[in-house]
Design goal:
With 230 residues, this protein is α+β, with helices and mostly antiparallel strands. The chain has a single domain (2-229), classed as Sortase, Chain: A (Beta Barrel), CATH 2.40.260.10. Helices cover 15% and strands 28% of the residues. The protein is globular, with a radius of gyration of 17 Å.
Length: 230
Amino acid sequence: MTLGVVLLLLVAHQLWWTNRQARAEAADTVHALQRDWGEPEEAEASAPPASASASQEPADDSPAVGAADGDAPAAASAPRRSQAYAVIRIPRIGLTAPVAQGISKHGVLDKGYVGHYPGTAQPGGAGNFALAGHRNTHGEPFRHINRLRSGDRITVETRDAVYTYTVDKTLARTQPGDSGVIATVPRSNVKPYVGYRVAGSYVTLTTCTPEFTSRYRLVVWGKLTDVRGR
């Protein structure tokens, strides 16, 4: 009986307490960014989340920065490791969450943040702005990205601009080591008929699938469709 109680407490900690803590921290971080940017704060900064670890964390945390086209605001500059520097919003799934540099569990993902893959483009940059998030526990910001459909909006706000991406493609399942999905021109190495063939400005969302496992990865892609300076 004692063992059963201990197991129930562990499950409650993982499925309830880690979500509560991470969502609160993520919401506080969103408010702090908005204050720093001189914006009015929203009443509710964090909504039903959805996430999961993406593939393994790279050894190097130095990002590659893309350049914006024409006279639009430049792409976001390179942040420090584990620094929260942007806010992602996905209306379809009610998500508002901070974006931080890197995909380490302790420093980024377990805080309920969405992590930016080092070496991929920054928001608004040419190339692939690739992100990871937990699907279950620790705020689970990417839990419901499987509900996203072509045409749904993903906005990424930084100090200087708001970048809007439009969902374009989904890869329901691939291997954790499928690095092609976060390549500059994203295209699955496992299922090469899924993805893109030409350069552009893309966003990639990655999380674990099925729920409560880390066996495979779920991928959602979108294209940059609007840039607005602040």
